[in-house]
Amino acid sequence: MNSSTCIFCSIVRGDIPASVVYEDEQVLAFLDIDPIQKGHVLVIPKLHVTNLLDVPEALYGPLFRAAQRVARAQKKGLGADGVNLLQNNGSAAGQVIDHVHLHLIPRYEGDGLHWSWQSDGYESRAESQETADKIKKVIDEWIAYR
Ligand code: AMP
Ligand code: ZN
């Protein structure tokens, strides 16, 4: 998928309609067409970037500033008691649209929404440390080579 075939790029260009709730130079936020709750918003960069792993660092500030504004507005404007921020990267993680997006879902006390997380706990302290080390080692190498 590239920017000419991407549905979210079409929304950015104004080629297909969307219910926009926020826009600035780099970011657009609009209602999800198939909401988990009414007022479910998607925040995207206007730049076509596949997922979180490819987002240029300079866009993180604008994206999360927009997400904060939307979340505050969902509380004040819709009376939400809380907000979930969800973000899927890759088909294995449930990503369907290959243009990075943050889901902001308004939540209400007792709204009955549940994520079906199942715990996959560690056998031992050693196993959790080994897992942490596999991640940390890669990050430490990146930092060292900067
Ligand atoms: P994901 O599974 O994280 O890739 O989520 C993609 C989201 O995009 C889904 O929640 C869809 O309902 C939403 N979506 C797909 N097409 C549109 C559209 N034209 N306007 C608004 N939201 C859309
Ligand atoms: Zn796109």
Explain how this protein is built:
It is a single chain. The protein has 146 residues and is α+β, with helices and mostly antiparallel strands. Helices cover 34% and strands 17% of the residues. The chain has 3 helices and 5 strands; from the N terminus they run H-E-E-E-H-E-E-H. It has helices at residues 7-13, 57-78, 125-144; strands at residues 20-23, 27-31, 41-45, 82-86, 102-107. It has a 5-stranded antiparallel β-sheet with strand order 1-2-3-5-4, covered by helices on one side. The radius of gyration is 18 Å and the shape is globular. The mean pLDDT is 95.
Question: What's this model, at a glance?
Answer:
19% of the residues are buried. The protein is an alpha+beta fold and 146 residues long.
Task: Report the bound ligands by name, code or SMILES.
Answer: adenosine monophosphate, zinc ion
Total helical segments: 3
What share of residues is helical?
25-40%
Q: What structural class do the secondary elements suggest?
A: alpha+beta
Question: Uncertain spans, ≥5 residues at pLDDT below 50?
Answer: none
How confident overall, as mean pLDDT?
Answer: 95
Alpha-carbon distance between the termini?
31 Å
